């Protein structure tokens, strides 16, 4: 695929994140990520969609430094961050955050929400000590949680509320880019919409940039400006949302669209099922 | 699989060497030596010195080890420094009684633990379950020597129905019934231990399996509960038990030291104890090597059996 | 409302489980009917009681849970009154079930062949050899390549999609009259999901098997179901045929659910409407409507008095005061 295909007109904007031929091979001959390149521009949402084992989550982990790339470069704000030591990565942490599918496992069950949110503020010295409490209030307000949440423990919250806490924690360091790794997959339908809307609202309010990783086309379509489709470690198609949904070029993209159930019984049987190898 | 076994056996060689060296160092660091143990007013100092030279104890430690080691490579474990019998022969002659005691205890212990553990898990929180868990707790927590001495008090001293020591009655014919009577008490002690430990393992393993989705599938297929348990649950529950049983063998050998002492059982444990007391270096080294071989062998056996019972495990390297 | 065509009739089913706080009712007064060959979907979120309903029908509840009342009439027999042996004869034979997690639903230490043949031998009284041949035939039907080889494999050698095909083959091997599918495609990728759904449809059409589909995914419902039951907090809140439900949902919860899924079939990027709040954690003590705290139409009456499932259209039942008011006060109760 030529590069021109997926660089859109950004009025001369520099990309915030650039992946160049990124690869992750595992010793057992598994090519989890096999030469992936794309750019994310400030203020946009790039949706990264693919099935299990496509390598989409591995990309997210490499960007935030949880996995080391086998080859290729990751440029953040023009700086190569793929080879950074964990200490250097630590300084970047504040600009680069990740929201996971299950926030519960990343929230210390013995700490109250106030402490959980204050922790990164202290470590990275985001605000002076006397302002921490006020900052925590502001964060809770941002994710539409009541102030009374401060003194409660993670297990006292529902799945959707925990995801809000996860998002608040990511926001606390005032990041430029947030990787959303399947942020709504574990949530009930009626809660998913709440979180998706929250993410969209926050993007507007705080001028955030998202890499939105998911397997569900619906959610990706709803939040993304551009979409990259991954299959077996490679990006098979990348383009504007409308292009991907109305004029998919790659057979795998077509198969994925065909296979996704549509919540309208009148449309059933109209689709042909293409078999996807693998 | 064969490749895997060979690789494991090759790894065992440096391990055994290391174990014997460490054992030799510790043994040398302990106060006293075989000759010191002979010191008494009746024996002149010159005789002791001659003895020391005769046993090779005047040579530097590394030479002593080297001598032992080169003999070992020729399959020779040397001679006891106390009885002058070949160490290999001594160990072999003591192995029979120990294996008899341990084998019987292991079989009975497991035969009690598996059904009881399974039943206990199936009826969790029932009276039977509480009884089994309590019994298992007692089996683990009562020290061997205490239970052994208690049994001797009740059955030998008070009721006078069981012999308190030895494997055969002195001067008796040493027949099957005679050995059997001598075995009862030591076997009870060891069995209490084995069963106690394993009831808990089997029970918790079974409890975990009972929660598994595939049992619900088996029930949804219309299998009777007995089939669900016997065919689908028990096999899965016993797989982790293989590992535990593999560890049982070295534990039993360790326990034999105490038990054989208490019941004067003429086995490996008793030999170990007496050779340590008399600083019988060559015998101690032989016994130690044997113990290391048993531990490594039991581990290897466990891994092989594991691969046989669990189709998910394959050793391909 | 007695209908001789009813293959299955669930009547006022009530199931609870013991907890530290006493008995918690997770399925409260659920009633529905199924005809031969039809696909009925029960849709709801986690904790709605949809899976417990299915497990209660098969009498496969775990320890601690128990059926507290109601009937499950299968061809006129009350399954809840059968003895264990009689129930075993029905399970896997006339009523079979597949589950959400294909990765853990098969026994890891037994071959596929063994697990396939087991139920065939028991229910169809076939010899081992006959059962083996039938099992191979079934595996062929569910589209597995090299069925003979797969019979000798252990589950770990198969992918999630293949395992779910094996589960379906196993469930369909005795040509059941009802197949209960509890989130059968939730753990699978979308492309595999589409294949599995198609396969279930085809097999059941061929053998006239009715499907009870338990799912949280309205997309799957739209693709598969003839009729739909919407459950919320242990109760049925709406029942209608699939077209009516998607075109003219009457219960505010159903309406909210439909508006909160991102649409693939339109370019309308309008903000998704979400249902505020969450399902109440404990709901059996709620006197009024259980959706009260999240409902845009909630009134005083909704708070005070629990609505009944009443007729709000042709074969359309809704548990909502507001819907009843709009329909002009029709007070006919759906299931007596």
From TrEMBL, chain A:
A GO biological process held by the record: transmembrane transport
PROSITE patterns: ABC_TRANSPORTER_1 (PS00211), ABC_TRANSPORTER_2 (PS50893)
Taxonomic superkingdom: Bacteria
Pfam families in alphabetical order: ABC_tran, oligo_HPY
Coiled-coil residues: none
Alphabetically ordered keywords of this record: ATP-binding, Nucleotide-binding, Transport
Domain ABC transporter: 17-257
Gene3D superfamilies attached to this UniProt entry: P-loop containing nucleotide triphosphate hydrolases
GO MF assignments: ATP binding; ATP hydrolysis activity
PANTHER family: TRANSPORT ATP-BINDING PROTEIN
The family this protein is said to belong to: Belongs to the ABC transporter superfamily.
Protein name listed in UniProt: Oligopeptide transport system ATP-binding protein
From TrEMBL, chain B:
Single biological process term from Gene Ontology: transmembrane transport
Pfam families per the UniProt record, alphabetical: BPD_transp_1, BPD_transp_1_N
Keyword set, alphabetical order: Cell membrane, Membrane, Transmembrane, Transmembrane helix, Transport
Domain ABC transmembrane type-1: 95-302
GO cellular component, one term: plasma membrane
InterPro entries given in the database record: BPD_transp_1_N, MetI-like, MetI-like_sf
CDD domains: TM_PBP2
Top-rank taxon: Bacteria
Gene3D superfamilies in the record: MetI-like (1.10.3720.10)
Subcellular location: Cell membrane
Topology versus the membrane: Multi-pass membrane protein
Residue spans crossing the bilayer: 9-27, 99-119, 131-159, 179-196, 237-263, 283-309
Similarity comment text for this entry: Belongs to the binding-protein-dependent transport system permease family.
The protein's name in its UniProt record: Peptide/nickel transport system permease protein
Species annotation: Fontibacillus panacisegetis
UniProtKB/TrEMBL annotation, chain C:
Topological type in the membrane: Peripheral membrane protein
GO BP field: peptide transport
SUPFAM superfamilies: P-loop containing nucleoside triphosphate hydrolases (SSF52540)
Protein localization: Cell membrane
CDD domains: ABC_NikE_OppD_transporters (cd03257)
SMART domains for this protein: AAA
InterPro entries registered for this protein in UniProt: AAA+_ATPase (IPR003593), ABC_Ni/Peptide_Import (IPR050388), ABC_transporter-like_ATP-bd (IPR003439), ABC_transporter-like_CS (IPR017871), Oligopep_ABC_C (IPR013563), P-loop_NTPase (IPR027417)
Family annotation (Pfam families): ABC_tran, oligo_HPY
Keyword Cell membrane in record: yes
Source organism, top-level taxon: Bacteria
Residue intervals of the ABC transporter domain: 2-258
Gene Ontology molecular function: any one: ATP binding
Keyword annotations from UniProtKB, A to Z: ATP-binding, Cell membrane, Membrane, Nucleotide-binding, Transport
GO cellular component assignments: plasma membrane
Similarity comment text for this entry: Belongs to the ABC transporter superfamily.
NCBIfam families, sorted: oligo_HPY (TIGR01727)
Protein name, per record: Oligopeptide/dipeptide ABC transporter, ATP-binding protein, C-terminal domain-containing protein
Species annotation: Fontibacillus panacisegetis
């Amino acid at each position: 695929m030529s590069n021109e295909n997926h660089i859109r007109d950004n009025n001369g904007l520099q990309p915030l994140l650039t992946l160049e031929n990124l690869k992750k091979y595992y010793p057992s001959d598994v090519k989890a990520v096999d030469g992936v390149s794309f750019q994310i521009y400030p203020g946009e949402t790039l949706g990264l969609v693919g099935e299990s084992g496509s390598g989409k989550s591995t990309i997210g982990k490499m960007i935030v430094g949880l996995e080391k790339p086998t080859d290729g470069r990751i440029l953040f704000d023009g700086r190569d961050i793929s080879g950074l030591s964990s200490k250097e990565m630590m300084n970047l942490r504040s600009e680069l955050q990740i929201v996971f599918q299950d926030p519960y496992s990343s929230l210390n069950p013995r700490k109250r929400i106030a402490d959980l949110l204050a922790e990164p503020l202290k470590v990275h010295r985001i605000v002076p000590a006397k302002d921490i409490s006020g900052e925590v209030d502001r964060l809770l307000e941002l994710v539409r949680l009541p102030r009374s949440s401060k003194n409660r423990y993670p297990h006292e919250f529902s799945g959707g509320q925990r995801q809000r806490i996860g998002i608040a924690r990511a926001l606390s360091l005032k990041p430029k880019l947030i990787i959303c790794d399947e942020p709504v997959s574990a949530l009930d339908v009626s809660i998913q919409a709440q979180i998706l809307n929250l993410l969209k609202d926050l993007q507007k309010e705080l001028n955030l940039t998202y890499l939105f990783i998911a397997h569900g086309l619906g959610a990706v379509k709803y939040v993304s400006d551009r979409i990259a489709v991954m299959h077996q470690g490679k990006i098979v198609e990348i383009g504007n949302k409308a292009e991907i949904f109305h004029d998919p070029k790659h057979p795998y993209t077509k198969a994925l669209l065909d296979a996704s159930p549509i919540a309208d019984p009148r449309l059933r049987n109209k689709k042909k099922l293409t078999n996807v190898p693998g | 699989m064969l490749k895997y076994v060979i690789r494991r056996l090759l790894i065992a060689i440096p391990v055994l060497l290391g174990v014997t060296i460490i054992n030799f160092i510790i043994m040398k660091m302990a106060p006293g030596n075989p000759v010191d143990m002979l010191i008494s007013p009746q024996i002149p100092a010159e005789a002791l010195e001659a003895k020391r030279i005769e046993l090779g104890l005047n040579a530097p430690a590394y030479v002593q080890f080297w001598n032992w080691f080169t003999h070992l490579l020729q399959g020779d474990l040397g001679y006891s420094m106390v009885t002058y019998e070949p160490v290999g022969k001594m160990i072999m002659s003591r192995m029979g009684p120990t294996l008899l005691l341990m084998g019987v205890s292991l079989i009975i212990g497991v035969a009690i633990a598996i059904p009881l553990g399974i039943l206990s898990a199936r009826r969790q929180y029932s009276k039977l379950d509480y009884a089994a868990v309590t019994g298992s707790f007692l089996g683990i927590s009562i020290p061997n020597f205490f239970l052994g001495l208690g049994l001797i008090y009740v059955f030998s001293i008070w009721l006078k129905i069981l012999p308190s020591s030895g494997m055969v009655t002195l001067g008796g014919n040493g027949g099957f019934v005679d050995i059997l009577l001598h075995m009862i008490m030591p076997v009870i002690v060891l069995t209490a231990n084995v069963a106690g430990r394993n009831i808990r393992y089997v029970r918790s393993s079974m409890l975990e399996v009972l929660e598994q989705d595939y049992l619900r599938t088996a029930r949804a297929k219309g299998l009777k509960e007995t089939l669900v348990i016997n065919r689908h649950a028990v096999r899965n529950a016993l797989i982790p038990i293989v590992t535990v049983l593999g560890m049982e063998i070295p534990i039993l050998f360790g326990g034999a030291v105490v038990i054989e002492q208490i019941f004067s059982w003429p086995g490996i444990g008793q030999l170990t104890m007496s050779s340590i007391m008399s600083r019988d270096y060559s015998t101690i080294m032989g016994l130690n090597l044997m113990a290391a071989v048993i531990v490594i062998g039991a581990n290897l056996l466990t891994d092989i059996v594991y691969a046989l019972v669990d189709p998910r495990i394959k050793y391909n390297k | 409302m007695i209908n001789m065509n009813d293959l299955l009739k669930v009547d006022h089913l009530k199931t609870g489980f013991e907890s530290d706080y006493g008995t918690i009712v997770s399925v409260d007064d659920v009633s529905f009917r199924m005809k031969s060959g039809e696909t009925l979907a029960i849709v709801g979120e986690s904790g709605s009681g949809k899976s417990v309903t299915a497990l209660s029908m098969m009498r496969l509840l775990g320890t601690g849970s128990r059926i507290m009342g109601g009937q499950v009439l299968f061809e006129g027999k009350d399954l809840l009154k059968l003895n264990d042996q009689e129930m075993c004869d029905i399970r896997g034979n006339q009523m079979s079930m597949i589950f959400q997690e294909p990765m853990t639903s098969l026994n890891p230490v037994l071959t596929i062949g063994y697990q396939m043949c087991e139920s065939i031998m028991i229910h169809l009284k076939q010899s081992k050899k006959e059962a083996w041949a039938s099992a191979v035939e079934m595996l062929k039907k569910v589209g597995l390549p090299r069925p003979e080889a797969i019979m000798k494999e252990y589950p770990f050698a198969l992918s999630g999609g293949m395992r779910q095909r094996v589960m379906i083959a196993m469930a369909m091997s005795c040509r059941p009259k009802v197949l209960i599918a509890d989130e059968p495609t939730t753990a699978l990728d979308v492309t595999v999901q589409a294949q599995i759904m198609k396969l279930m449809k085809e097999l059941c059409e061929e053998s006239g098997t009715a499907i009870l589909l338990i799912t949280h995914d309205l997309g799957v419902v739209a693709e598969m179901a003839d009729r739909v039951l919407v459950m919320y907090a242990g109760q049925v809140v709406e029942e209608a045929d699939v077209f009516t439900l998607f075109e003219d949902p009457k219960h505010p919860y159903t309406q909210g659910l439909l508006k909160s899924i991102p649409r693939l079939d339109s370019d309308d990027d309008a903000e998704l409407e979400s249902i505020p709040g969450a399902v109440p954690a404990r709901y059996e003590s709620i006197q009024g409507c259980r959706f009260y705290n999240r409902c845009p139409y909630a009134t005083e009456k909704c708070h005070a008095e629990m609505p009944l499932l009443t007729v709000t259209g042709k074969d359309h039942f809704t548990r909502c005061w507001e819907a009843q008011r709009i329909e002009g006060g029709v007070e006919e109760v759906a299931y007596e």
